[in-house]
Amino acid sequence: MNGQKIPAKTVIIAVITVLVILFLFSMYFGIDAGDRGVVLRFGQVNRVVEPGPRFKIPLAEEVVRMTVRVQKTTTKTEAASRDLQTVQTTMVLNYNLAPEKAGSMYANIGLNYNERVIDPAVKESFKAAAARYTAEELISKRETLKTEVRNYLRDRLGVYGVTVVELSITDFEFTAEYN
Length: 179
What we know:
Elements: H1 8-25, E1 28-31, E2 35-41, E3 44-49, E4 52-55, E5 61-67, E6 71-80, E7 86-97, H2 102-108, H3 113-130, H4 135-140, H5 142-158, E8 162-174
Antiparallel strand pairs: 1-4, 2-3, 2-5, 6-7, 7-8
Helix pairs in contact: 3-5
Protein backbone atom coordinates (compact mmCIF):
# COMPACT_ATOMS: atom_id res chain seq x y z
CA MET A 1 0.00 0.00 0.00
CA ASN A 2 2.60 2.58 -0.98
CA GLY A 3 3.54 3.11 2.69
CA GLN A 4 0.61 5.46 3.36
CA LYS A 5 -0.75 5.51 6.88
CA ILE A 6 -4.48 5.59 7.55
CA PRO A 7 -5.25 8.68 9.61
CA ALA A 8 -6.30 8.01 13.21
CA LYS A 9 -9.41 10.13 12.67
CA THR A 10 -10.62 7.77 9.91
CA VAL A 11 -10.09 4.70 12.10
CA ILE A 12 -12.00 6.30 14.98
CA ILE A 13 -14.89 7.28 12.67
CA ALA A 14 -15.02 3.72 11.24
CA VAL A 15 -15.06 2.15 14.72
CA ILE A 16 -17.78 4.54 15.94
CA THR A 17 -19.84 3.85 12.80
CA VAL A 18 -19.62 0.09 13.35
CA LEU A 19 -20.60 0.48 17.02
CA VAL A 20 -23.60 2.67 16.12
CA ILE A 21 -24.75 0.13 13.51
CA LEU A 22 -24.43 -2.72 16.03
CA PHE A 23 -26.33 -0.66 18.62
CA LEU A 24 -29.14 0.02 16.14
CA PHE A 25 -29.37 -3.66 15.16
CA SER A 26 -29.56 -4.68 18.84
CA MET A 27 -32.78 -2.64 19.11
CA TYR A 28 -34.57 -4.83 16.57
CA PHE A 29 -36.07 -8.27 17.17
CA GLY A 30 -38.74 -10.42 15.55
CA ILE A 31 -41.34 -12.78 16.96
CA ASP A 32 -42.46 -15.75 14.86
CA ALA A 33 -46.07 -16.74 14.25
CA GLY A 34 -47.26 -19.03 17.04
CA ASP A 35 -45.04 -17.33 19.62
CA ARG A 36 -45.29 -14.38 21.97
CA GLY A 37 -42.41 -12.27 23.13
CA VAL A 38 -42.24 -11.47 26.82
CA VAL A 39 -40.20 -8.29 27.07
CA LEU A 40 -38.27 -7.99 30.32
CA ARG A 41 -36.98 -4.60 31.41
CA PHE A 42 -34.23 -5.09 33.96
CA GLY A 43 -35.60 -8.57 34.69
CA GLN A 44 -39.23 -7.53 35.24
CA VAL A 45 -42.03 -8.36 32.79
CA ASN A 46 -42.72 -5.11 30.94
CA ARG A 47 -45.02 -6.21 28.12
CA VAL A 48 -46.00 -9.10 25.86
CA VAL A 49 -45.64 -8.58 22.11
CA GLU A 50 -47.34 -10.36 19.24
CA PRO A 51 -45.64 -11.81 16.16
CA GLY A 52 -43.85 -9.44 13.83
CA PRO A 53 -40.93 -7.04 13.86
CA ARG A 54 -40.46 -5.13 17.11
CA PHE A 55 -38.02 -2.83 18.86
CA LYS A 56 -36.56 -2.88 22.35
CA ILE A 57 -34.29 -0.72 24.44
CA PRO A 58 -30.77 -2.13 24.11
CA LEU A 59 -29.05 -3.16 27.35
CA ALA A 60 -32.24 -2.49 29.37
CA GLU A 61 -34.61 -4.99 27.77
CA GLU A 62 -34.39 -8.62 26.76
CA VAL A 63 -36.96 -10.81 25.02
CA VAL A 64 -38.08 -14.29 26.07
CA ARG A 65 -40.01 -16.23 23.43
CA MET A 66 -42.93 -18.40 24.56
CA THR A 67 -44.86 -20.65 22.22
CA VAL A 68 -48.66 -20.49 22.13
CA ARG A 69 -48.91 -23.36 19.64
CA VAL A 70 -50.44 -26.68 20.62
CA GLN A 71 -47.87 -28.73 22.51
CA LYS A 72 -47.82 -32.34 23.65
CA THR A 73 -46.71 -33.86 26.92
CA THR A 74 -46.64 -37.56 27.78
CA THR A 75 -47.03 -38.50 31.42
CA LYS A 76 -46.71 -41.93 33.02
CA THR A 77 -48.42 -42.31 36.36
CA GLU A 78 -49.57 -44.89 38.82
CA ALA A 79 -52.79 -44.90 40.84
CA ALA A 80 -54.99 -47.16 42.91
CA SER A 81 -58.47 -48.13 41.76
CA ARG A 82 -61.49 -48.24 44.08
CA ASP A 83 -60.86 -51.94 44.67
CA LEU A 84 -57.23 -51.10 45.59
CA GLN A 85 -55.66 -52.49 42.42
CA THR A 86 -52.53 -50.68 41.26
CA VAL A 87 -52.81 -49.38 37.71
CA GLN A 88 -50.14 -47.69 35.64
CA THR A 89 -51.09 -45.59 32.67
CA THR A 90 -49.62 -43.36 30.03
CA MET A 91 -51.53 -40.21 29.22
CA VAL A 92 -50.90 -37.80 26.37
CA LEU A 93 -52.09 -34.23 26.84
CA ASN A 94 -52.31 -31.70 24.02
CA TYR A 95 -52.43 -28.16 25.36
CA ASN A 96 -51.54 -24.60 24.54
CA LEU A 97 -50.72 -21.47 26.46
CA ALA A 98 -53.28 -18.67 26.16
CA PRO A 99 -51.47 -15.78 24.40
CA GLU A 100 -52.76 -13.17 26.83
CA LYS A 101 -51.38 -15.17 29.78
CA ALA A 102 -47.80 -15.54 28.50
CA GLY A 103 -46.49 -12.66 30.61
CA SER A 104 -48.05 -13.80 33.88
CA MET A 105 -47.02 -17.42 33.20
CA TYR A 106 -43.40 -16.33 32.76
CA ALA A 107 -43.49 -14.02 35.78
CA ASN A 108 -45.10 -16.53 38.14
CA ILE A 109 -43.83 -19.90 36.94
CA GLY A 110 -41.15 -19.45 34.28
CA LEU A 111 -40.40 -21.40 31.13
CA ASN A 112 -40.55 -24.83 32.78
CA TYR A 113 -44.31 -24.67 33.43
CA ASN A 114 -44.72 -28.16 31.94
CA GLU A 115 -42.71 -29.76 34.76
CA ARG A 116 -43.97 -27.43 37.49
CA VAL A 117 -47.69 -27.27 36.70
CA ILE A 118 -48.90 -29.52 33.88
CA ASP A 119 -47.33 -32.90 34.72
CA PRO A 120 -48.32 -32.78 38.41
CA ALA A 121 -51.88 -31.78 37.46
CA VAL A 122 -52.15 -34.71 35.01
CA LYS A 123 -50.93 -37.16 37.65
CA GLU A 124 -53.20 -35.78 40.35
CA SER A 125 -56.26 -35.75 38.10
CA PHE A 126 -55.77 -39.39 37.08
CA LYS A 127 -55.26 -40.52 40.69
CA ALA A 128 -58.42 -38.71 41.79
CA ALA A 129 -60.50 -40.13 38.94
CA ALA A 130 -59.12 -43.69 39.11
CA ALA A 131 -60.02 -43.95 42.80
CA ARG A 132 -63.72 -43.75 41.84
CA TYR A 133 -63.59 -46.81 39.57
CA THR A 134 -62.82 -50.48 40.05
CA ALA A 135 -60.05 -52.00 37.94
CA GLU A 136 -62.65 -53.55 35.63
CA GLU A 137 -64.50 -50.24 35.26
CA LEU A 138 -61.30 -48.44 34.35
CA ILE A 139 -61.24 -50.50 31.18
CA SER A 140 -64.97 -50.68 30.44
CA LYS A 141 -65.64 -46.99 31.23
CA ARG A 142 -62.47 -45.62 29.69
CA GLU A 143 -64.22 -42.81 27.81
CA THR A 144 -66.02 -41.62 30.96
CA LEU A 145 -62.74 -41.69 32.88
CA LYS A 146 -61.03 -39.72 30.12
CA THR A 147 -63.78 -37.09 30.13
CA GLU A 148 -63.56 -36.77 33.91
CA VAL A 149 -59.79 -36.33 33.86
CA ARG A 150 -59.96 -33.86 30.94
CA ASN A 151 -62.61 -31.73 32.68
CA TYR A 152 -60.61 -31.70 35.90
CA LEU A 153 -57.50 -30.62 33.96
CA ARG A 154 -59.41 -27.85 32.16
CA ASP A 155 -60.49 -26.40 35.50
CA ARG A 156 -57.11 -26.85 37.18
CA LEU A 157 -54.91 -25.61 34.33
CA GLY A 158 -57.27 -22.85 33.16
CA VAL A 159 -56.22 -20.83 36.20
CA TYR A 160 -52.69 -20.65 34.76
CA GLY A 161 -53.82 -19.80 31.23
CA VAL A 162 -53.25 -23.31 29.88
CA THR A 163 -55.96 -24.55 27.52
CA VAL A 164 -56.51 -28.31 27.37
CA VAL A 165 -57.02 -29.29 23.74
CA GLU A 166 -57.26 -33.08 24.09
CA LEU A 167 -56.34 -35.87 26.47
CA SER A 168 -55.63 -39.47 25.48
CA ILE A 169 -55.20 -42.39 27.83
CA THR A 170 -52.99 -44.69 25.78
CA ASP A 171 -52.77 -47.80 27.96
CA PHE A 172 -53.47 -49.41 31.31
CA GLU A 173 -51.13 -51.84 33.05
CA PHE A 174 -52.23 -53.75 36.10
CA THR A 175 -50.09 -55.77 38.49
CA ALA A 176 -49.18 -59.33 37.50
CA GLU A 177 -51.26 -60.67 40.41
CA TYR A 178 -54.38 -58.92 39.13
CA ASN A 179 -53.82 -60.00 35.54
